[in-house]
Write a structure and sequence with these properties.
- This protein is mainly alpha-helical and 316 residues long.
- It is built from 17 helices and 2 strands.
- It folds into 2 domains: 2-64, no CATH class; 68-133 and 161-310, Orthogonal Bundle (MetI-like fold).
- It has helices spanning 2-11, 14-20, 22-40, 68-75, 77-97, 99-110, 114-125, 132-142, 149-156, 173-189, 191-197, 202-210, 215-239, 247-253, 259-262, 265-273, 282-310; strands at residues 51-54, 58-64.
- The chain has a two-stranded antiparallel sheet.
- A hairpin with a 3-residue loop joins strand 1 and strand 2.
C-alpha cells in the first residue's frame, strides 16, 4: 500500500500542482515574467564575450574568436590591479562589515527598556536611507584634507599623520569605503538578526540565570546558536557576490590620486564601455563581466558546500 502511494505521488506531473495551487502560481507569475525578461533573456547576449563585435553585423553577427578576450584581460596590466583591489575591498567588507550587524543585534536585544530600544533601532536605521551620492558628498566634507571635521579630529589624536589626505591617498581608500559602508548599512542589516533573536524562548534565559550563567554566557550558549543558520545563509549570499563591489560608490569616491587602489572590476568595465579615447570595447567588457560572474558562482557553491558540512545550513 505504501509503495502504491509513493508511485501515485511520483506519477503526478507539474500539471497537477498547477491545477491544485493555481492561485499561488498566478501570484508568482509577475515575478517569474520579470526574472525571465531581465535575468534570463540577457544571458543570450553573453556570447558577445566570444565574438568580435561589429557595428554593422550586430551583437550576434561578429566573428567567433573563442576565449581571445578572456586571454586579453588575463594578460593585461589591469587584470592583477582590478582583481586585487576588488578582492581586497570585498574581503575587508566581509571581515569587518559582516560581524557588525550581528554584534549590534545582540546589543539591542540586551536592552530591556522598550523606549530606549526603539530609539536606538530607529537611530541606527536612518543612515541606510541616505543615498550614495549624499554619502560620498558627506565624506568629501567631513574628511577633507584641510577643514574636514573628522579628518582634523583623527589628526589631533595622531591616528593619521598631519599631512594625510584620507580621500586622496590610496592607502586610506579601503578604510574609507568599508568604514562608511558599515556605518550606513549596519543598522538595516541587523533587522534580520533581531528578528531571529525574538524567536528565542524566554524560558531558556530564565533557566540560564538559575544555572548561574552571566550575560556573556547567555549570548554564547543561547543567542549565538539561534543566529548561526541566518549567519551562514547571509554569508553564502555575500560570498556569492564577492567580485561585485558596488560600482556607484567606488566610482564617486574615485579620483586620480587614489585610482591605483580604487580601480575595481566594475569601474574597469565602465571605462571599457565609455572610454575617454577610442571606441568602446564591448566584447572585452562582456568577457570581464562573464569572468566575474563565473568566479562569484564558484565562491557561492564552495561556501555553500562548506557551510552544509560544518553547520548543516545552506541554500540548497
Amino acid at each position: 500500500m505504501t509503495t502504491a502511494v509513493h508511485a501515485k505521488k511520483k506519477s503526478r506531473g507539474i500539471g497537477y500542482y498547477l491545477k491544485q495551487d493555481w492561485q499561488l502560481w498566478v501570484m508568482l507569475l509577475p515575478a517569474i515574467v520579470y526574472i525571465f525578461i531581465f535575468c534570463y533573456m540577457p544571458m543570450y547576449g553573453a556570447q558577445l564575450a566570444f565574438r568580435k563585435y561589429d557595428y554593422t553585423k550586430g551583437i550576434y553577427g561578429g566573428d567567433w574568436v573563442g576565449f581571445q578576450y578572456f586571454l586579453d584581460y588575463f594578460n593585461s596590466a589591469m587584470f592583477g590591479t582590478t582583481l586585487r583591489n576588488t578582492f581586497l575591498i570585498s574581503l575587508a567588507s566581509i571581515v569587518l562589515g559582516f560581524p557588525a550587524p550581528i554584534v549590534l543585534a545582540i546589543i539591542i536585544n540586551q536592552i530591556k527598556n522598550n523606549k530606549w530600544k526603539r530609539t536606538l533601532q530607529t537611530t541606527v536605521y536612518i543612515p541606510y536611507f541616505i543615498s550614495v551620492v549624499v554619502l560620498v558628498s558627506m565624506l568629501n566634507v567631513l574628511f577633507a584634507k584641510s577643514g574636514g571635521v573628522l579628518s582634523d579630529f583623527l589628526k589631533a589624536l595622531h591616528i593619521v599623520p598631519a599631512n594625510a589626505n584620507l580621500l586622496g591617498q590610496k592607502q586610506y581608500f579601503v578604510w574609507m569605503y568599508v568604514g562608511s559602508g558599515i556605518w550606513q548599512s549596519m543598522g538595516w542589516n541587523s533587522i534580520i538578526y533581531i528578528a531571529a533573536l525574538s524567536s528565542v524562548d524566554v524560558q531558556l534565559y530564565d533557566a540560564a540565570k538559575i544555572d548561574g550563567a552571566n550575560a556573556w554566557q547567555r549570548v554564547i550558549h543561547i543567542e549565538f546558536p539561534v543566529l548561526v543558520p541566518t549567519i551562514m545563509i547571509l554569508l553564502i549570499m555575500n560570498m556569492g557576490s564577492i567580485l561585485n563591489v558596488g560600482f556607484d560608490k567606488v566610482f564617486l569616491m574615485q579620483n586620480t590620486l587614489n585610482k591605483q587602489a580604487s580601480e575595481v572590476i566594475s569601474t574597469y568595465v565602465y571605462h571599457l564601455m565609455a572610454p575617454t579615447t577610442g571606441a568602446p570595447q564591448f566584447s572585452l567588457a562582456t568577457a570581464v563581466g562573464l569572468f566575474t560572474n563565473v568566479v562569484n558562482f564558484v565562491f557561492l557553491m564552495l561556501t555553500n558546500t562548506i557551510s552544509k558540512r560544518l553547520t548543516g545550513s545552506g541554500l540548497m
